[in-house]
Write a structure and sequence with these properties.
Elements (H helix, E strand, L loop, with lengths): L6 E4 L11 E6 L4 E4 L2 E4 L7 E10 L4 E10 L30 E4 L9 E10 L4 E6 L5 E15 L2 E4 L11 E4 L8 E8 L5 E8 L5 E14 L8 E2 L19 E2 L19
Antiparallel strand pairs: 1-4, 2-5, 3-4, 5-6, 7-8, 8-15, 9-14, 10-13, 10-15, 11-12, 11-14, 16-17
Length: 274
């Protein structure tokens, strides 16, 4: 769970002899309360980390324990989109658009809001680059995405790229020929800034001057990817005692702050266990 989220767990217990049961919160984190078998609360900034919980149930003769951990991760940080006016809802603000009438902000179709960028020509032309320069941090990974629709493109090639000074490290380019994106299609990938501190988005057509038809671009996003990777946290507590000729079973439960898929492996397992 994350800071600011509410936590609730109800302890279920029955007794085969129908004896009256007493439930005890032996170890309870300070940000949680335990009442009527319900463990609940909301962690604050001081509660980030892993918290042990120990609950007990007794019928007066036998006591059964339940132990587990609760991992409290930092609040989720929404990535900041570095693109100004990413969906062209403010016209061409933030973008440098060439003259000639081939490039415009259109309300014909869009994926977010009512506008998108349109490149359009009825005859074969060369369309100069629409650009936006975005400050970036050198040697940093960024996640890039945008949407394209070119069902009405009839010839030539449109190009999207991220640098007018391409290197093997910084070059990211996508080309679009007729039918490449006949419905709105999302393109995404990881881009590394290398030595650059300014990234230049460019949208244009190839120098062969054979573009005709219409292509739309919309919903650009460029956000920094955190370089840190938090370790997974095991929240289950395995039983530490086993008895001869009695079945032993424990389930390993773990969580990951980045919600990445986890792979479990048995590093050292006694030969009587699977």
């Amino acid at each position: 769970m994350r800071l600011g989220e509410s936590y609730s767990y109800t302890l279920e217990a029955v007794d085969p002899d129908a004896d009256s049961l007493t439930v005890i919160g032996t170890t309870i984190p300070s940000w949680l309360s335990f009442s009527d078998r319900v463990l609940s609360g909301t962690p604050t900034a001081l509660d980030e980390g892993v918290h042990s919980v120990h609950l007990s149930v007794t019928d007066g003769s036998v006591t059964v324990d339940q132990e587990f951990n609760i991992a409290v991760f930092p609040a989720l940080v929404v990535p900041v989109n570095l693109i100004v006016n990413p969906s062209f809802e403010s016209g061409t603000t933030g973008w440098n658009v060439p003259g000639g009438g081939w490039v415009s902000v259109s309300t014909d179709t869009s994926t977010n809001g009512i506008s998108s960028l349109r490149l359009s020509s009825e005859s074969n032309v060369l369309i100069s680059a629409t650009t936006q320069e975005v400050p970036v941090t050198s040697n940093t990974n960024y996640e890039l995405s945008f949407w394209v629709l070119n069902a009405a493109q009839t010839s030539g090639t449109a190009v999207f790229d991220l640098s007018d000074k391409p290197t093997a490290q910084t070059e990211t380019q996508q080309t679009f020929s007729p039918g490449t994106a006949s419905v709105w299609t999302r393109y995404s990938g990881i881009w590394n800034s290398g030595s650059e501190t300014v990234m230049k988005i460019r949208i244009f057509t190839t120098p062969s001057a054979d573009f005709s038809g219409t292509i739309y671009f919309d919903e650009f996003s460029l956000s920094e990817i955190s370089a840190e990777n938090a370790a997974p946290v095991i929240t289950s507590v395995a039983g530490s005692t086993a008895y001869l000729d009695q079945w032993y079973r424990t389930t390993v439960v773990a969580v990951d702050e980045e919600e990445s898929p986890l792979v479990f492996s048995g590093v050292s397992i006694p030969d009587w266990l699977d």
